[in-house]
Design goal:
Length: 286
């Protein structure tokens, strides 16, 4: 497999990008089941990219239902070491306007129904370092491309990941604001955690569509407006993918690439051999 494949996880529309040469569609199977959909392999500026729509083509999988273990494992099995994920988010801060872009640096986990949020368990214990949940190297690499498009960009914001599928209550939205969080979605977890466990560099490009529900003086929000914001954000995301993919450098020396080297706690003789065999499919160097 090509070692330089870049992984793109995004919304349903992101795999159809004008001017991008599609090489093949791959149906993957993993020890953790099937990913959200087939994976589109494309060539962008001579670099292979693997596109995976998080909610399936046509958007039929709830955030709660996404098999993130299979998604991350499938990309790793295709030789992906760097993932740029895209997500629509709600803004929790006045200064983060709809249509602004955000590269968050932190996460607050408010999910509560996400089985399969670790590759470990079942007789093999490991604890990944997750103090900085995103790859700092990848975040810095992506930043200038967003700035160069004249988009308003916010770095170093905290992303709240809620369970959904209903949006927050106003009291919850105000609570998250009081915590200093900047944006909210339903998609970054367990995806980011599993990427770290799989030793993949992972960063998320977030695109604000609305002011969540805390902003009560923002009464003129319409479905048209939100859809308009989504479409504008998606057009920018597609252009960004074409620019970012050829610029990624593989990150061979990045911390993420050896994140699990000393993380397994279970003595070799005590490891469940079946679980260990599954883990070795994505972490052969452990
Ligand atoms: Zn990294």
């Amino acid at each position: 497999m090509d070692k330089a494949t870049v992984g793109i996880i995004g919304g349903s529309g992101l795999y159809e990008i004008e001017g991008v040469e599609v090489l093949e569609e791959i149906k993957m199977d993993t020890p953790w089941g099937l990913p959200s959909d087939s994976i589109t392999i494309a060539s962008i500026g001579g670099v292979r990219a693997a596109f995976l729509p998080r909610h399936g083509r046509g958007h039929f999988i709830l955030p709660t239902e996404v098999n993130s273990r299979a998604n991350i494992a499938a990309l790793k099995m295709l030789g992906v070491h760097e993932i740029v994920a895209f997500s629509a988010v709600g803004s929790l801060k006045e200064e983060i306007h709809p249509r602004d872009f955000i590269i968050p640096s932190q996460i607050i986990d408010r999910t509560k129904d996400r089985p399969g949020s670790s590759f470990f368990g079942d007789g093999v214990v490991a604890h990944a370092s997750f103090a900085d949940p995103f790859c700092g190297r990848l975040r810095k690499l992506i930043e200038p491309f967003i700035a160069a498009r004249g988009l308003r960009l916010h770095m170093d914001e905290t992303l709240v990941c809620m369970e959904g599928p209903a949006f927050s209550t106003r009291a919850e939205s105000r609570l998250y604001r009081s915590w200093g969080a900047g944006i909210i979605n339903m998609s970054v977890l367990p995806e980011a955690k599993l990427a770290r466990e799989a030793e993949i560099c992972y960063a998320m490009v977030c695109m604000a569509t609305d002011y969540d529900c805390w902003k009560t003086d923002h009464a003129d929000v319409t479905v048209d407006m939100v859809v308009g914001n989504l479409n504008a954000n998606s057009a920018h995301a597609k252009a960004l993918i074409k620019e970012i993919v050829p610029a990624l450098d593989g990150g061979e020396d990045c911390f993420c690439r050896s994140a699990m080297r000393y993380a397994v706690m279970t003595a070799p003789a005590k490891r469940n051999p079946e679980t260990w065999a599954k883990i070795k499919t994505i972490l052969p160097e452990l």
